Amino acid sequence: MQTPFEPRIIGFLCNWCAYAGGDLAGVSRFQYPPNMRAVRVMCSGMVHPSLVLDAFSLGADGVIVMG
Amino acid sequence: MNITLHTLSEVVAFDGQTGNFNITIKQHPRYVDMDKCIACGACSEKCPKKVPDSFNMGLNSRKAVYIKYGQSIPLKYAIDPQSCIYLTRGKCRACEKFCPTGAINFNDTEKIVNLQVGSVILAPGYKPFDPTGWDFYGFGKIADVVTSLQYERLLSASGPCMGHLVRPSDQREPRKIAWIQCVGSRNTNRCDNGYCSSVCCMYAIKQTLITAEHITGPDLQQTVFYMDMRSPGKEFERYYEGAKAKGIRFLRCRPHSIEPGPDGGGVHMRYVTESGQVMDEDFDMAVLSIGLEPPEGNQRLAEVFGFALDRFGFAETSNLTPVASTRQGVFVTGAFQAPKAIPRSVTQASAAAAAASQALQSVRNSMTREKVYPAETDVRDQAPRIGVFVCSCGLNIAGIIDVKALAAFSKTLPHVVYVENNLFTCSADTQNQIGERVREHGLNRIVIAACTPRTHEALFQDTLQDAGLNGYLLEMANIRNQNSWVHQHQPEKATEKAKDQIRMAVAKVTLAESLKRQSVTVAQQALVIGGGVAGLSSALGLADQGYPTTLVEKNDRLGGNALRILDTAKGEAVGPWLSGLIEQVKRHPRITVLMQARVTHTSGSIGSFTSQIDVAGDTRSIQYGAAILATGAHESVPDEYGYGSDSRILTHLEMDDRLTASPGKIAAADTVAFIQCVGSRDSRRPYCSRLCCTHTMKTAIRLKTLNPDMNVFVLFRDVRTYGKREELYQKARQLGVIFIRYALESKPDVRAAGNGIRIACSDPVLGMPVEITADYLVLASAIVPNDIQDLVELYKCGRNEDGFLAEAHPKLRPVDMSVDGLFICGMGNYPQPVEETLAQSQAAVSRACVVLNQKEMQLDAIKSVVTDKCDGCALCVDVCPYRAIRLVELSPETASSHPYARKVETDPALCKGCGLCAATCPKGGIYVQGFSLDQLHAQVAAALAQHANLYEVVKE
Question: Is B686 helix (H, G, I), strand (E, B) or coil?
Answer without folding.
Answer: coil
